[in-house]
Amino acid sequence: MSNNHLHAIVMGGSLGGLNAALYLREAGFDVTVLERSRVPLAGRGAGIVLNPYTVRYLTDRQTMAGVDMSIRSRYLRYVNKNGRITHEIEAPYRFASYNSIYAGLLALFGREKYFLNQRVTGFDRKGEIVRVHTAEGRQFTGDLLVCADGIGSEARCWLLGSTPAAYAGYIAWRGIVSAADVSPTTFELLHEAIIYHIGKDEHLLTYPIPVVDSSFGQGKRYVNWLWYRHVPQGEALDAILTDRHGRRRDLSVAPGAVPDRAVAALKAEATTVPDLLRALILRTEQPFIQAIFDYEIPQMSFGRICILGDAAFSARPHTAAGTAKAAEDARQLGRALNEHGNDVPEALKTWEKRQLQLGRSLVRRNREAGTKLQNGTWPIGAPLPFGLYEAGDSEMK
Ligand SMILES: Cc1cc2nc3c(=O)[nH]c(=O)nc-3n(C[C@H](O)[C@H](O)[C@H](O)COP(=O)(O)OP(=O)(O)OC[C@H]3O[C@@H](n4cnc5c(N)ncnc54)[C@H](O)[C@@H]3O)c2cc1C
What we know:
The chain is an alpha+beta fold. Helix content is 30%, strand content 27%. The strands form four sheets. Strands 5, 6, 13, 14, 15, 16, 17, 18 and 21 form a nine-stranded mixed beta sheet that branches. Strands 8-2-1-12-20-19 form a six-stranded mixed beta sheet, sandwiched between helices. It has a three-stranded antiparallel beta sheet with strand order 3-7-4. A hairpin with a 2-residue loop joins strand 19 (301-302) and strand 20. Helix 9 (322-340) runs antiparallel to helix 10 (344-375). Flavin-adenine dinucleotide (FAD) binds at residues 11-17, 34-37, 41-44, 46, 48, 98, 119-120, 148-151, 154, 309-311, 322-323, 326.
């Protein structure tokens, strides 16, 4: 059935929002995207582990943007405290920068109805119409509102009240280092590989990523590292999430915003990890912090409004499937609307059943993997948990 003459508004123009916009347009909707950022979005300094679902819109249409910019790994290597490889298995994954995927999707959607500097401040419903208001004083009306406003979703609060995410008890220190800046021995180990080191109450992993920002130098390779460490809730967590201006951040402290003394402490404490991984931490100029949370939404469809991507579920990052889930929520939304024609509420109900299952399973799988990786019960030598529907579906040759 065709959805001609129906209008959809998408709140949030990142990967979830752009995928939704593209699939809805194909389902016959006239789509407007409202993004609060004043400038086109840019990566936060770390790469994305690709999953076929993350780039499915692009690959299904034979547009390889985002994928052709990716770097691949061949192996998963576990290293012990002495830096010796204890296990090596094949691991054909691909890594891309946020920027290249975002740019590929935005180029396909076009800029005509992608509005930057439009922060949605609320909405109201009148009969079959949803009216959306922005801080810039504009109003947009649609037959459908898709909320893709990310982990700190305001839409979620408007729809469900305050629903705080549960802190997982650990944070990730993260950083990137140019592959050219590491020793030949380190490069040999890190090259085309994902490295895991599992210690007591911590684990560290690295993977290669392509250029993440034009200021880093086009065409260069970087190594992305993540060091997961326990930090108890309360004073310790408050301290680590306080930026250099004294402001307590909710979820993360961005590159450049971490206080110098916290960076110095990180480097001083990096004696528990193998020397060659420690070298990466020491060389990183602007490490940054991401606290790890679990959040599950109880409901994703609300009549003619739905919520997807990180706004609906924020899973821990161990299955590396956050972007894939956002894109898959969007793809399934397009399918459901195609199947139900003009009946938006019915389409959203059908869609919700399936996507709630996916979100819950992803949160559960990440929680299980994260617990084992942090408490030392992860079977060293086992394949990675990377995957959206199941471990392994992220593999891309
Ligand atoms: C700028 C940016 C860079 C990122 N870089 C990386 C990366 O390098 N590596 C990685 O693994 N993941 C990265 N992510 C996260 C990753 O893209 C997401 O976790 C995932 O794709 C889910 O996407 P999402 O669209 O659901 O949420 P998000 O990607 O978080 O996008 C939410 C969007 O909604 C917008 N928004 C929020 N509130 C409003 C409002 N009131 N009105 C209008 N717009 C609003 C935000 O500005 C944002 O663009 C990045 C996200 C962003 C926004």
